[in-house]
Amino acid sequence: MKSERLARNLDLTEQTMNRRDFLGILAGASAALASPHFLLAAPEDSSAARPPSFIIIFADDLGYQDLGCFGSPLIKTPCLDRMAAEGMKFTDFHVAAPVCTPSRAALMTGCYAQRVGLPNVLFPDAKIGINADEISIPELLKTRGYATACVGKWHLGHLPPFLPTRHGFDSYFGIPYSNDMRPTPLMRDEKVVEESAIQETLTERYTEEALRFITENRNRPFFLYLAHTMPHVPLHVSERFKGKSKRGLYGDVVECIDWSTGQILDTLRKLNLDGDTLIAFTSDNGPWLTRGEHGGSALPLRDGKGTTYEGGMRVPCIVRCTGKIPAGSVCSEMVTAMDFCPTFARLGGAKMPTDRIIDGKNIWPLMAGMKGAKGPHEAFFYYRSYGLEAVRSGKWKLILERSERRKETDDRKIPEALYDLHADIGETRDVSAEHPEVVKRLRGLAERCREDLGDSNQDRPGKNRRPAGRV
Fold first, then answer.
1. Which residue out of 155, 228, 232, 377 is catalytically annotated?
2. Do domains 53-367 and 380-470 have the same CATH topology?
3. Which of 79, 100, 331, 341 is catalytic?
């Protein structure tokens, strides 16, 4: 009962403590708390004491149809197809933004990017980044003794206070923002090791770093965040992969990422970590369609990156943990990248903070294929910057009426529209006239969201936003 009393005390204490003190107490308390059962095991199995390891592989600008197991007719992804055959595909998986920085902020914190003050893409002249008071996935897991590493693109602030090593990662190897931004330095921890990163070999070097980290930490729980630079433009790939795909250079790049994933899967198997490691593969947003042949495909979804149609924010997702996640399974419930944070914390035995709003939910029941498990979100909100553009509940998605300016002299009105995404995944037929009661309910959800997070389309500030970090 000592652990329960201590947990209750932490619940009371964390409400009045700052973030650093809270994390410090949790880290010190870990030894006193009873080791959690390996929650990936069956509930009746109390023999496994080691908590699971976690790997998130995050592609950049990969489209919904850009993997073989999601229907690509030209790009070959045998390793990711094998991962899906050995695990679960989520076919209704959403990131919380249609562009880089806010999507990553939501992933790391379990919160909408608007809540943590990072709703827009950061550029090399930005003086802001992830706030020191936010609590990230690696920080939560470190309270349970996890080794942590970030490899690849960060894009939550490139100045020292915002780097991965200041936010829970033991090590960092990668570029601090998108590869089309200049300069494009390659960093190790907080030092630049290449003033201008040699991008042709980035995916392979990221893979080597990831394999080294896994191997060195095979005897303890770990969290690896592998955020690929590609297939964001400009596209680069080494000679060994160039010209291999029927989809041109874009396909070559994706097939290189597939190879990388295969290396990780093979290493987990070699080290006998398959059943102890939950690995997830997904993308930060949909494909950059305006890049033509250098962009991917979101079919059968509508539109792509930068938009709040499904093609901008619904992305492929595969999860695998041998013996714990049903092999060859498909989940069609609506879930989000924000859900990884509370799910991993729960499985790893870490306590989520109770002094703030966390938007993500524990989706382990879905991953485990538990009978009757349902998507945990009453609603999901589609934002672009601070503007609320759509709301989703169940199968229904309501596009909110708004004005949109694309050029100085080009104002256009976006009309309200209701789509049944189960029957019309491509958002082609407005059925609002047929379902006025659904429209009314979703308008009400949107209004609640405006009170919470705001809506710049209506000059609504929102009452539960937290600031970005600033230097």
1. 155
2. no
3. 100
Enumerate the domain spans of the chain: 53-367, 380-470
Contact 447, 391 (CB under 8 A): no
- Rounded to the nearest 10 degrees, how much is the dihedral formed by the CA atoms of 24, 28, 29, 32? 180
Is CATH 3.30.460.10 what the domain over 380-470 is classified as, yes or no?
Answer: no
Are 114 and 188 in contact by the 8 Å Cβ rule? The answer is no
3-class DSSP string for the chain:
CHHHHHHHHHHHHCCCCCHHHHHHHHHHHCCCCCCCCCCCCCCCCCCCCCCCEEEEEEECCCCCCCCHHHCCCCCCCHHHHHHHHHCEEECCEECCCCCHHHHHHHHHHCCCCCCCCCCCCCCCCCCEECCCCCCCHHHHHHCCCCEEEEEECCCCCCCHHHCHHHCCCCEEEECCCCCCCCCCCEEECCEEEECCCCHHHHHHHHHHHHHHHHHHCCCCCEEEEEECCCCCCCCCCCCCCCCCCCCHHHHHHHHHHHHHHHHHHHHHHHCCCHHHEEEEEEECCCCCHHHHHHCCCCCCCCCCCCCCCHHHHECCEEEECCCCCCCCEEECCCEEHHHHHHHHHHHHCCCCCCCCCCCCCCCHHHHCCCCCCCCCCCCEEEEECCEEEEEEECCEEEECCEEEEEECCEEEEECCEEEECCCCCCCCCCCHHHCHHHHHHHHHHHHHHHHHHCEHHHCECCCCCCCCEEC
Active site includes 155?
A: yes
Q: Are strands 171-174 and 147-152 parallel, antiparallel or unpaired?
A: parallel
pLDDT tens, residue order, the chain (471 aa): 323 332 433 343 344 445 555 454 444 444 333 334 455 444 444 345 689 999 999 999 999 999 999 999 999 999 999 999 999 999 999 999 999 999 999 999 999 999 999 999 999 999 999 999 999 999 999 999 999 999 999 999 999 999 999 999 999 999 999 999 999 999 999 999 999 999 999 999 999 999 999 999 999 999 999 999 999 999 999 999 999 999 999 999 999 999 999 999 999 999 999 999 999 999 999 999 999 999 999 999 999 999 999 999 999 999 999 999 999 999 999 999 999 999 999 999 999 999 999 999 999 999 999 999 999 999 999 999 999 999 999 999 999 999 886 666 667 899 999 999 999 999 999 999 999 999 999 999 999 999 999 999 999 999 999 999 999
Question: Which class in CATH covers the domain with range 53-367?
Answer: alpha beta
Specify whether 100 is catalytic: yes
Q: What is the dihedral of CA 100, 106, 107, 110, to 10 degrees?
A: 180
